[in-house]
Each structure stands twice: as C-alpha cells, then as structure tokens.
Amino acid sequence: ETGVTQTPRHLVMGMTNKKSLKCEQHLGHNAMYWYKQSAKKPLELMFVYNFKEQTENNSVPSRFSPECPNSSHLFLHLHTLQPEDSALYLCASSQDWDRLLSPLHFGNGTRLTVT
Amino acid sequence: AQSVTQPDIHITVSEGASLELRCNYSYGATPYLFWYVQSPGQGLQLLLKYFSGDTLVQGIKGFEAEFKRSQSSFNLRKPSVHWSDAAEYFCAVGAGRDAGGTSYAKLTFGQGTILTVHP
Question: Is residue B99 pLDDT above 60, yes or no?
Fold first, then answer.
C-alpha cells in the first residue's frame, strides 16, 4: 500500500460508545495531522504530531484523544461524543511539521455519525 | 491571523468551458498559497502551490493559478473543463516563519467551492 490509509471509512456510534479511528502512512513522513471537516465549515485542524510528539492541540474537547505510537501510525480515540461531532475526519501527513514546502497528503477520511 | 475567503460556494460550468475559482486571503506578510481538490468520498489532493517567484503557477490536471498581491487573490483557472473535474476545491494559506523565527506552518482553509460540470 502507498499513501495515507484511514480505517474505518464509515462509523456510526452512540453517544456513550468508545471507538477509535486509525490512520497509517507509508510515505516515510515525520508529521501527522487530524482534521475535522464539517458541512459548510472550513477544514479545522485538530492535532499535529511531529516525530511522535504532539506539537499542536487546537483547543479540541477532551472527548477526542489522539495517540501517535510511531511516525507511521496515528489514532483518534473517541468517547462520549455529541451529535455535533458528526463529520468527516481526515488524517494527513507531511515530511516535516515546520516546513510548508512539504505538502500535506490526505487520507480518504472516516465519515463519523454520532446518534 | 491569516484567513481565506472563497466567495463562490457553488459553480456550474459546461464541459469544455473555461473555469475560474476565486480565492482571497488575508495575511500580513508574504503568504504561502495552495489549492486542493476533493473528489466525492476522497481526501484532499494538492493541485498547486505558490511560495515565491513567478506569480503564475502551473499545477496538475491542467490547472493554473495566479498570485496577485495587490488584490490579495490567488484565483484558480483552467482553460477547458472536463467532466472529471467535478469536485470541491479548497484554497489555503499558510504562514511561514514569523519575525521572531518561530515556525508556524499551519494551513488555514477556505470553505470550499463545489464545481458541477454539465455535459
């Protein structure tokens, strides 16, 4: 496989459930990102990891908990979500966090529905 | 803080017609500008980027964009649209290093423009 792979593609969960989103990149990149894409809103940066260290938490509620065990894998653990958290969650990677010359490579996203 | 405005939420063109998608940005220094495309059910793919130099940049799939500092714009163009170009297009602006030398490589995205192509 190449590129950025996200699983699952679709997820429906109740507000009391606990689930996790997974992202894996096969590009040898050092930085990984979680973005939230809601209808009629710009893409929102949630978290950034560079060399497994979190460098950005964009005021995300604690019901979203990221985990980056190594530079190739990124998880987003979800618990006690709200219906307004329903969105497309996109994972991305880039060569380095602090170099804009290295563009973002996106996965296809996980479509999350909270019931 | 930087911001991006895409004034057109939805644009419809006929196949073979020319296309221009508008993007206006707000940023105090020289911006780093990007256009991404998102096909249904897919993630975002980089079309082109502008960092410096020639203000007309060429991208993939026959797209180009022109940076106009005086108008704070970075409009995307294509001379002849194909049905496969139907997608949502996002303009983004990124800051480089600030005056203090701190890296601030965050992208701010516009709300997107949905392109529909009629046969």
Answer: no
